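Look over both lines before class:
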Amino acid sequence: MVAVNIEPRSPLGQWVSFWKSTGAGDVLWGQDTNGSTVKDYRLLALGTEIIVDRHGSIVFRSDGAVGYKKLRSEVEKHL
């Protein structure tokens, strides 16, 4: 799992601290400093969830939180 901070006004450390405070598992974090992630994945809102398969294809997309059960189900389909 990779989480990318696309909000330039919020430092990456702030998001990591928030994530850890929720008790969620470890993820790999990245900071999009030049807006390329927003452009490449046509992100419309913070909280966009995208699952990319081993071949680099987007196999699931949600422009709002869908919840853990749904995300887990989608990830398991493509393992």
User: Anything to note?
Assistant: The two ends are 12 Å apart (CA to CA). DSSP finds three helices and four strands in the chain. The chain has two domains: 1-40, 44-79.
